[in-house]
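To the team - manganese (II) ion complex, inputs and output below.
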Amino acid sequence: MEENSVSKELKEKLFSKNKHAAKRISIEEKSASDSFAKDYMEFLNASKTEREACANAEKILKDNGFVPFQIGMTLKAGDKVYRNNRGKAIVAAVIGSASITDGVHICAAHIDSPRLDLKQNPLYEDHEMALFKTHYYGGIKKYQWGAMPLSLHGVVVKSDGSTVVVNIGEDEGDPVFCVTDLLPHLAEEQMKRPAGSLLRGEELNILVGSLPFNNDEESESVKLGILNILNEKYGMTEDDFISAELEAVPAYHTCDVGFDRSMIGSYGHDDRVCAYPALRAIVDCKAPVHTAVVVLTDKEETGSDGNTGLCSSYLKYFIDDLADCFGAKGRHVLSASQCLSADVNAAFDPTFPDVMEQKNCAYINRGVCVTKFTGARGKSGTSDASAEFVGVVRRLLDSKNVVWQTGELGKVDAGGGGTVAAYIANLDVDTIDVGVPVLCMHAPFEVVSKLDVYMTYRAFSVFVE
Ligand code: MN
Ligand code: MN
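Output:
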């Protein structure tokens, strides 16, 4: 009996505590998390592409007193500025009370998601059907994109230089589009293909019409009919596709998942499920000590290259310009800075347990996931946060009662993946990955837990405040 109680006491002192968030949070927090989820879902429905997410983020920033950053402007504690990078990425800052050379606290997340991009000559007619050719963007299981409703988003830059915005398939009454798939009755040969080519890249063709323009004998009359509609609606011609960026994404809206409504199902959680909490954290940040910076970036899903991705210098330039306002050097600011690089992690899936090392993976409802390292094949491509910085983050989250967990992206050598953390760490910033665990990541319908989304917001809040 006595020995038992000694063990019990010692266990309580030494073992990890129960991690299920629902068992650890108050009723007030549960209701705060439900209401946060509502706001997030609204943002998500209106932000299906990086451009839309960027525009909506800018609107939220402006509505909350953020003003466009100007080179050399006079800044004082509490001032709120932002810079929009080409309509696809955005950086915002709230000036802290400490000296800028004490470093800034950065939250980074990406607002691009896997999707189907239209090619530059997309429209063609085949057997009196009109279709779009696509090139997929990011890592997708191509077979998941057949036979479901798609909407079309983006911009067309016309020959006169004017830009027209396209957003069709989202509103009630809008038509939608779809990649056709083969009926099972005739799929005997298709079903023998390896899963990676069940639907091949050049088979991801989107059906966009079937009626001829007129009752005439002209060839390609269905294509003409579609171009005529596009011309009436957007004033565009076929050549204007060349300077367009049009993205096909799932047309459905977000929804609650589960009888208990504990989860959110949606396209594009990765990584707006971190971007929105980061945005809200900086909007709600009133009087930070260190200057708070949030960067919502583009191009993560294709490797972060390009001038709107985090391999470019735009974040560094922004910090440089900020430092200049205080007569400081950007590199001195960066070297003293800290970053929560926010991206989703894979959540344990009981149907596919074999890819996870269950002592070290992330689970839904255990809170925001802190990931010390990512990468593949022996941590290749990771920035691997130092024990010291993990210690800083751990103490911060614990002291503010943020429910959090650690997680590794799958078993060693099961695969792997990277985030933007390495690119920020390469600027000499202490950086660690944090984020929301996701089920069915990169699928057209991803699932997250409302509690985890809220705890991610709380983690950003306590980090920037
Ligand atoms: Mn991501
Ligand atoms: Mn991703």
